[in-house]
Specification:
By secondary structure, this protein is an all-beta fold. Helices cover 1% and strands 52% of the residues. Among the domains are: 148 residues, YVTN repeat-like/Quinoprotein amine dehydrogenase (Methylamine Dehydrogenase, Chain H, 7 Propeller); 363 residues, YVTN repeat-like/Quinoprotein amine dehydrogenase (Methylamine Dehydrogenase, Chain H, 7 Propeller), CATH 2.130.10; 147 residues, Methylamine Dehydrogenase, Chain H. The longest helix has 9 residues.
Length: 1172
């Protein structure tokens, strides 16, 4: 049992800027959960310097500069209260990061802050102040930090300063004072108060300063220090920004925001301008305006007023950093981070005072997700983001193709790239259309028309390649072979450029050409069921087609390939050019695909004698579709030799080639579905010294070998009907993230519906994410396969005006009036009387999308009023034991201001009719409590309502309760397997129930007796389960076996903390194999001493894992923990699914989802974590 991250954290927790890697380097530093990403800020954009993994969850960080230093240091505070100071040593050849200081600053008896952890340095660079605990602040003297690693710092140089205020909202150092001085916002009885303190540097206590501050806004949550010449600080609330300074009048200005929202981030542009962003994504520029005097204002300048400009809407900011020359980075936790450029005038299209240079995708926070397997194309669909950054993300694993240029031309059916004048690189591209052909010159990224004497332009081109006469193997090849409908043409190129057509050939049968291929001086041509082997003889100036072989096969020939292979089982890729396979090796066999079920045969060259035949089925039994081969390829991947054949119905057949004996044969035929179009084609090419097969279809694949296994990698571009390698040589371009030049041979030409596209192929398989913006928060998602629809439960925020009208904050998917909208026709249940009314409403809707096109088909809105509104809690799809299709089942609860927990809820049963695109309300049923979770249970419903688990059946349009279990505090999670139900409680961990259908009863089978705050769970089978808690731990759990009294240690690839075993008895046999096959075990005594290990990716540890689990005496009704593992992120959901990577021997895996990450486990599951 192990886990690995398929996509690590993409959410930006904090962004910093400074001179970290060198005195002259301007760096941008991202903090992403347990990773530090360092970028250089250049004129071309951001360029990656290094990613640093940290064995711990980072809470906050700070760039600071010591006195008499020209380079910044990085201070980090982790969840385990470890303080780390890093410095960079950069030379021309290397970049090294050194831990110069590490100290645990944990304080016993003080509670860790859940939010608002801050680190800051005072204006004189004397202290680093860290607010990590309630009522306590730690001060670290900068001057006493070591100059090099390994030097100890005296304990007395780290000071604990007590804060008398109970609830501190924010605090900051203030400029312009001789001693370190703080300003602080604290809350008492719902009111906000402003305080100022001076730090006594001798006794290290806070001394209150007398200051006459007026009352501040109750919603004030942020302090912004102001630099010279005005000094003082800004107090930021939801509606107003105030300037305060002792002995100076305070100034207040209203924020010109369209919607009332909390300001969450700021950045200083210069001494008189500050950028601020709120939770709605609105960006403001705050100007400090003084008297109109000379530019060199005295230090005692007086601020006259504040001027605030609204610049536009960005992603919801978590951190704002001003870089240089009007460029600003918006780091987002809830949406995609952005790099923007401020402008002096408004953009007429976006109505913003900035341009978005680049967006950095962020998957989090992930609230829910589903795993969809559709004809071999596995994908995850996640509910990502919050508020206006809410979206659905479709995640596939594959190889990316970056589009460089496109020639807009419809009805293209072929493309080939050749070296026409260049001796090394392809400089011409031949394009074939329905009744004509064109040749264009490729000059860098530019294309220009080219006229070639002898080239046939008024007919369709079937095939093109460069060839040479027999005996003339010099490079480049001097002849171009063009095949039209019924003729072969040899045209002079290179030294013979302009000599026109030098030779022609037509089939003696008088029929048209059906298929052909060429290599070197050998051309294999098919016409009907006849096949001919031609050798190009003569000289380059006077070439001649000479027939050297002929055969008549049993059926018409559909496709041919003569790619040679090396019988020594080692493909000599070093001699192969970027677009050529195996250099000039002479082919020995031809692979031929035949029509009407005659299958695939192998012919000996050049005699064309048939040596092997494998018939294929004539048609698909389930659909009756005829199987017709469209393309065939012989491909050798190091020691692996295959024959691939793709048919017109989108089925790929592939064989192992056995040539160990004197006779060659094809063995072990396999097949897979790769598309649903007749425009399929197999093309081989070499790139970066490795062999690839490109499979053109409506869902293209790139096939390659990895560790002696075939890998079928998806491509991020759809509907590719033809492909040709483009050997354009080394390119001067750099990809968008600055990861170096694109290597020669990575370019290809493709025919897509848009025309001919030139693209560059990524060297690695990676996740590709497609974004479906909703502009509101997605909460739940479910797939309904029989109607090919996807239901998404969403939430949007609305404001209630003073007149009682509901106003939309932002346009969103559920507020779109262009689609069909319906609302429950059942009245709201009778609720208790209340005088309190909402000023903000969270309105929930069920959105129905078409699975194929992602078109929004219907909006189903839940009920609301000013006193009470309906909240969507759970969603599932079930057939409810009926035979007329599936239903959407939606669980809701009613929220009132006077109620701490919802007392009433409803279950909506809805049916989607895709033919008429109508959502029918079958029934709405009231329940007592909140249906936190609803799952399909073999035609029944199992629901977690309040503290109970209930089983419902549906008959006569009524929802009938069959059984109930009331032994929980709050039922949050339910998973089912066969007739077993695993229940996750808010505090009582997990309980395993079994439903006895004959008795209509729920029986407790086993219970986990260790209290735990469960955040997610999944059933692997009726005996083994996987759970997660609020600390980011994963537990492998199972039913107690009487043969064992010991809970075994299951080691993992990442850090595992074993539970201390109980004495006697070996581990259960079912887990012994897993333990023995894992990589290694990390005993508690061998936990790494250093937190900073830049070359090793490890899971963060946490204090909670060091606690020994003490359970009650084990019985047969106990669930026991087999192993703990810490992922370093909050886990929201487990989803069962197959492997994301499409490998031949598919490993079923599981994915976890935490709010920003996707983690892979080789057991049937996907995890979504909080930060990826």
């Amino acid at each position: 049992f192990y886990h690995t991250s398929a996509q690590r954290s993409t959410a930006v927790n904090l962004a910093l800027t400074g001179n970290f890697t060198g005195p002259n380097d301007l760096n941008l530093v991202f903090i992403k959960n347990s990773y530090i990403e360092i970028y250089d800020i250049t004129s071309e954009g951001l360029r990656v310097v290094r990613d640093i993994p940290l064995n711990g969850t980072i809470l906050t960080a700070l760039l600071f500069r010591r006195r008499n230093r020209k380079q910044d240091s990085l201070c980090i505070v982790t969840l385990r209260a470890d303080l780390i100071v890093l410095e960079c040593v950069r030379t021309k050849d290397s970049i090294d990061f050194v831990t110069v200081f590490r100290k645990n600053i944990d304080s016993r008896g003080h509670h860790l802050l859940h939010h608002g952890v801050t680190a800051m340095v005072d204006p004189t660079s004397t202290y680093i102040a860290i607010r990590l605990f309630h009522n306590l602040m730690k001060l670290v003297e900068i001057n006493h930090l070591p100059e090099r690693p390994g030097v100890k710092v005296e304990e007395s140089k780290i000071h604990a300063v007590k804060l008398d205020e109970g609830n501190v909202i924010d605090l900051t150092f203030i400029n312009g004072y001789g001693y370190p001085t703080f300003a602080m916002i604290c809350e008492d009885q719902g009111a906000a108060h402003l305080r100022m303190y001076e730090l006594n540097t001798k006794d290290h206590i806070l001394v209150p300063l007398p200051a006459n501050f007026s009352a501040i806004e109750t919603t004030s949550r942020m302090l912004v220090p102001v630099a010279a010449p005005y000094y003082g600080f800004l107090v930021v609330g939801d509606e107003m920004i105030s300037y305060h300074s002792p002995n100076k009048p305070h100034i207040t200005t209203c924020i010109p925001q369209k919607t009332l929202s909390k300001v969450v981030a700021y950045a200083q542009v210069d001494n008189k301008r500050y950028l601020m962003g709120n939770l709605c994504g609105e960006l403001f520029m705050v100007h400090l305006v003084g008297p109109e005097v000379d530019a060199l204002a005295p230090l005692s300048a007086v601020l006259e007023r504040l001027r605030i400009e609204r610049l536009g809407i960005t992603s919801v900011p978590e951190s704002i950093v001003y870089l240089d020359k009007g460029v600003v980075f918006i780091g987002s936790y809830f949406g995609d981070s952005q790099l923007i450029h401020l402008r002096s005038d408004i953009d007429p299209d976006t109505k913003c005072y900035f341009d978005v240079y680049e967006e950095y995708p962020n998957l989090g926070p992930i609230a829910d997700m589903i795993f969809v397997e559709n004809e071999g194309q596995n994908q995850l669909i996640t509910c990502s983001g919050y508020s206006r950054d809410g979206s659905l993300r479709i995640i596939r694993n594959g190889i990316g193709i970056q589009e460089i240029a496109t020639i807009g031309q419809e009805h293209m059916n072929g493309v080939w790239c050749i070296p026409c004048n260049s001796e090394v690189y392809d400089d011409a591209m031949i394009c074939s259309m329905k009744r004509r052909s064109r040749i264009v010159r490729v000059i860098g990224d530019d294309l220009a028309g080219l006229k070639l004497e002898g080239f046939v332009r008024d007919d369709r081109t079937l095939y093109c390649n460069t060839v040479h006469p027999q005996g003339y193997k010099k490079s480049p090849r001097p002849l171009l072979l063009q095949a039209t409908n019924d003729t072969l043409w040899l045209i002079g190129i290179q030294d013979l450029y302009g000599k026109g057509c030098l030779a022609t050939w037509k089939p003696p049968t008088g029929m048209s050409l059906s298929s052909l291929t060429a290599r070197g001086d050998l051309v294999i041509v098919a016409s009907g069921n006849c096949i001919f082997a031609l050798r190009i003889t003569g000289t380059p100036e006077k070439p001649v087609f000479t027939q050297v072989g002929q055969n008549e096969l049993a059926c018409e020939i559909a496709c041919i390939d003569i790619t040679p292979f090396n019988k020594s089982k080692s493909a000599d890729s070093s001699t192969a050019a970027a677009g050529d396979i195996l250099g000039d090796m002479e082919p020995e066999y031809a692979a031929v695909g035949l029509w009407l079920g005659h299958g695939i045969c192998l012919l000996k060259l050049p005699s064309l004698e048939q040596v092997f035949n494998d018939p294929l089925p004539k048609e698909i039994r389930s659909t009756g579709a005829v199987i017709l081969p469209r393309s065939i390829a012989i491909a050798q991947f190091d020691e692996l030799l295959y024959v691939f054949c793709v048919s017109g119905d989108g089925t790929l057949f592939y064989y192992n080639v056995d040539y160990s004996n004197d006779k060659i044969c094809l063995r072990d035929r396999k097949s897979m579905k790769i598309g649903s179009t007749c425009q399929v084609r197999l093309v081989q090419w070499n790139s970066r010294g490795k062999r690839y097969v490109f499979l053109c279809s409506n869902r293209p694949y790139i096939i390659y070998e990895n560790r002696h296994k075939l890998v079928f990698a998806n491509v991020n571009i759809k509907d590719i009907s033809y492909m040709a390698p483009l050997n354009s040589g080394p390119l001067n371009e750099t990809n968008t993230r600055g990861w170096g030049p694109i290597i020669s041979g990575s370019r290809i030409c493709m025919i897509t519906p848009k025309g001919v596209t030139i693209g560059s192929v990524d060297c690695l398989q990676k996740l590709h994410v497609r974004k479906i913006p909703l502009f509101e928060t997605p909460r739940r998602i479910v797939l309904q396969e029989d109607t090919c629809s996807i239901g998404v439960l969403t939430m949007r925020q609305e404001v209630v005006s003073g007149e009682g009208h509901i106003m939309s904050l932002l346009p969103s998917a559920s507020s779109d009036r262009s689609g069909k909208i319906s609302q429950t026709n059942c009245p709201m249940p009778k609720m208790g009387y209340t005088k309190n009314k909402f000023t903000h409403l969270d309105l929930y809707s069920l959105l129905i999308f078409c699975q194929a096109t992602w078109e929004l088909k219907h909006i189903y809105r839940l009920a609301y009023s000013l006193e009470c509104y309906e909240v969507g809690m759970s969603l599932c799809s079930s057939d409810l034991g009926q035979n007329n299709g599936s239903f959407y089942v939606l669980g809701t609860a009613f929220v009132m201001l006077d109620e701490i927990e919802p007392k009433k809820g409803r279950i909506h049963v809805l049916r989607w009719d895709p033919k008429v695109e109508e959502l029918q309300q079958i029934g709405v049923f009231e329940v007592l409590g909140s249906p936190n979770v609803i799952r399909d249970f073999d035609g029944r419903l199992v629901a977690g309502i309040g503290s109970s688990v209930r089983i419902y059946n549906f008959s006569d349009k009524k929802l009938n309760q069959e059984s109930v279990n009331n032994e929980n505090i709050v039922t949050l999670f339910v998973r089912t397997h066969k007739d077993y139900i695993l229940v996750g409680d808010i505090m009582r961990s997990c309980t395993l129930l079994q439903f006895k259908a004959e008795k209509s009863s729920l029986e407790v089978i086993a219970r986990h007796n260790c209290p735990r705050y469960v955040s997610a769970l999944e059933m692997l089978d009726e005996d083994h389960f996987i759970t997660a808690d609020m600390e980011g731990n994963i537990q492998l759990m199972g039913r107690y076996q009487t043969v064992s009294l010991e809970e075994p240690v299951v080691p993992t690839i990442r850090t595992v903390l074993p539970i201390p075993p109980k004495p006697s008895s070996p581990p259960p046999p079912s887990l012994e194999t897993a333990a023995s096959s894992s990589a290694f075990t990390v005993p508690r005594s061998q936990t790494p001493a250093s937190l900073f290990e830049p070359d090793v990716e490890q899971a963060p540890l946490h204090n909670s894992l060091e606690l020994t689990t003490k359970c009650m005496a084990l019985t047969e009704k106990c669930l026991v923990d087999y192993a703990f593992m810490n992922t370093g992120q909050s886990i929201n959901i487990f989803v069962k699914g197959g492997a994301v990577v499409n490998v031949l021997s598919l490993v079923t895996g599981s994915m976890l989802s935490g709010a920003h990450s996707v983690i892979w486990c080789p057991i049937p599951l996907v995890i979504s974590g909080q930060h990826e």
